[in-house]
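In this supplementary section we document a worked example of the pipeline. Step one takes a protein sequence of length 261 as its only input; no multiple sequence alignment statistics are reported here. Step two produces a three-dimensional model, which step three serialises into structure tokens for compact storage. The input and output of this example are shown verbatim.
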Amino acid sequence: MRMDAGKSYWFVFYKDRLLLELHDGKYYVPCTSAPPVPVPAGSTVQTIGIWNDYECRTYNVYTPVNGAEAPQRIMEGLRATYDLLPLRAYKWAGKASQILNWDANTQYCPHCGEPTHQISPIGKKCPVCRQEFYPVISPAMIVRITREDQILLVHARNFKSDYYGLIAGFLEPGESLEECVYREVMEETRLRIKNLKYFGSQTWPYPSGIMIGYTAEYDSGELMLQNTELSKGGWFNRDQLPAIPQKLSLARKLIDNWLEG
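The serialised model returned by step three reads:
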């Protein structure tokens, strides 16, 4: 593989906002030989891989980039970059965000409190008790449940807008992914399901997870929503859908797949 040692892709974050540059009406991740903005004291530059023959690097800044000083630059929330960047660039940005989150949370050994040493791009080690620390990915399942020509859609209380999504939840210790699906469906809806099938997965860097998608069919039970988790929900026909998730999510892919028949 040919590499241009003089340039790197720079994924620069202020909190969850990514630095982008505007050229000819399109947004890009900066690709320059030097950091596009100064690396502040206390911020570590992490190398996260190779893309298009260039190294990908990432670091945090502690104040947002001032667009008044550089009008061709903006800082945009990571989720919003899905609509601004090519898919591959968005995925690299997600990886960069996860690495920075891991770096921030592993500065000290949780067992003895000693500062950790970085031993690889995704590895740290405690020099005293010798424990090693790698990025922790939190798995969560999501399931599309259908009943004849209807789909079950719910509105979770933590949704920031009024869209409806699918039943989802995090994997607990001691259970398989399939057991997690059955448990979450029962806890949140009191329904029994059948014909559970794997659909696909998606990295979910908010801040560091992976979504595993399934499809299932209604088997039995009366819908009773878990009040602490869900504010509303029900069975919907194709021509009477409420607002649904944006295209970037696995939930939307599952719903679109059903809409396409």
